[in-house]
């Protein structure tokens, strides 16, 4: 057996370039759509309204945009709880 240790530069959300920040936001929204159980309990009602709007407008492809419009503060709050690689790929949670 061989053990290899790698070193990565990790960044907080605010330290990322705009492209990487966008990747984080898009991935967070996608995660919420795929697994709504992970959403902050304070955001669930607004999330439900975004889903309902998407359904009423018959525009499911805009769900991510509706979520971003209505829940931006919650998405950014979640994004700021982790470290990321320079590309915006999630690495680990920030431990206090």
What can you see in these coordinates?
The chain contains three helices and three strands; from the N terminus they run E-H-H-H-E-E. It has 96 residues and is mainly alpha-helical. The protein has one domain (13-93). The protein has a three-stranded antiparallel beta sheet with strand order 1-2-3, with no helix packed on it. Helix 1 packs across helix 3 (63-79). The longest helix has 17 residues, at 18-34. The protein is elongated and about 55 Å long. It starts with 10 loop residues before the first strand and ends with a strand.
The mean pLDDT is 96
Rg computed from alpha carbons, rounded to a whole number of angstroms? 16 Å
What is the general shape? elongated
Q: Could you state the oligomeric state of the chains shown?
A: single chain
Q: Number of helical segments?
A: 3
Order of helices and strands: EHHHEE
Sheet having the most strands? 3 strands, antiparallel
Q: Which percent band covers the strand fraction? A: 5-15%
Helix content: 40-55%
The strand order across the widest sheet is: 1-2-3
Strand segment count = 3
Structural class call reads mainly alpha
**Which stretches are low in confidence, meaning pLDDT under 50 for 5 or more residues running?**
none
């Amino acid at each position: 057996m061989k053990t290899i240790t790698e070193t990565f530069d990790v960044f907080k959300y605010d330290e990322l370039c705009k492209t990487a920040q966008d990747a984080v936001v898009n991935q967070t929204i996608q995660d919420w759509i795929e697994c709504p159980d992970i959403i902050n309990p304070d955001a669930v009602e607004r999330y439900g309204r975004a889903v309902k709007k998407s359904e009423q407008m018959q525009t499911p492809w805009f769900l991510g945009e509706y979520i971003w419009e209505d829940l931006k503060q919650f998405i950014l709050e979640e994004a700021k709880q982790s470290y990321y690689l320079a590309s915006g790929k999630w690495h680990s949670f920030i431990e206090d």
